[in-house]
Amino acid sequence: MAVPSPAYEEQLKAYEGRAATVAGVGKDPVNEPMIRHWCEAMGDTNPAYSGPDAMAPPTMLQVWTMGGLSGHTGRSEAYDELFALLDGAGYTSVVATDCEQEYLRPLRPGDEITFDALIESVSGRKTTKLGTGYFVTTRMDLRAGGELAGTHRFRILKYAPAQRKRAEQSSPKDRRTEQPSPKDRTNPKSRRPRPVINRDNAGFWEGVARHQLLIQRCAGCRVLRFPWLPGCNACGCLEWDTVEASGDGTVYSYVVMHHPPFPAFDPPYAVGLVELSEGVRMVSNVVGVPYDKVRIGMPVRLEFQRYDEELELPVFRPGGTGEGGGG
What we know:
It is a single chain. By secondary structure, this protein is of the alpha+beta class. It has helices at about 5-15, 30-40, 80-90, 170-175, 200-210; strands at about 20-25, 95-105, 115-120, 125, 130-145, 145-160, 215-220, 225, 240-245, 250-255, 270-275, 280-285, 300-305, 310-320. It has two domains: about 5-160, Hotdog Thioesterase (Thiol Ester Dehydrase, Chain A); about 190-320, CATH 2.40.50.840. It contains five helices and 14 strands. Strands 1, 2, 3, 4, 5 and 6 form a six-stranded antiparallel beta sheet that branches.
């Protein structure tokens, strides 16, 4: 793709500061049913989100502004014009990259939400692994009863997809024969990505190194939680200890990955949401069975699989009575 002219980029920059939505009104006031559905979906049992003095989870901030299929009144044409300008230059693909939220006051059932949104910034031309394009950031200011309650920034990348290498454009059958062998995967360039280890989850990975699957247990309410968190999402207690999982579980749900080949992976393969016998759930690979034979309800058993000299991960293999059942 040709490098855009300075005049084109000036056109894009001219959209910075233009309104995307003016005097938008939330279609529903903050309400208990939506809070309950959110908490059930997230598995969040914090008592602050229920009862007569309930507040909405802060991360629901954008929920109260969603327009649904019919959209919102007050929407300006600036956003559509900017997209048309990018589409016309070949930047036709879009991917959400990140969002930032700032919470200024809690939202409670009955609060009426109003909001304004503007195009805060359009980056210069950037080259990424997905392709070349522009990052567009939209800022939304939310108010409850006329008082600023929070700010939501949402960033997307509008881009022209990168040209795939010739080998990646071959047929799926051909690509499968080009997958590296297990021996080849010891090459650093084809190793699996390393897990992100920080002070909140270091204990979990120390357990994995000892072939132990450790689950956090709140020292206050004794509720088990997974993945690891710095504090209890049920009672807020910051103290905790651990229990070792027995290793027994069942497939609660699963997906089959068919994404384009990546040196460290060999699609298609199954990724399961496994419910452990202790009651918590974790995401991991289901191995030792064809991907199209994985079933919801299938009993599985923990094992630790080594991928290279530095990386060993907990995975699950079918096992126990009823293996292969479910539907």
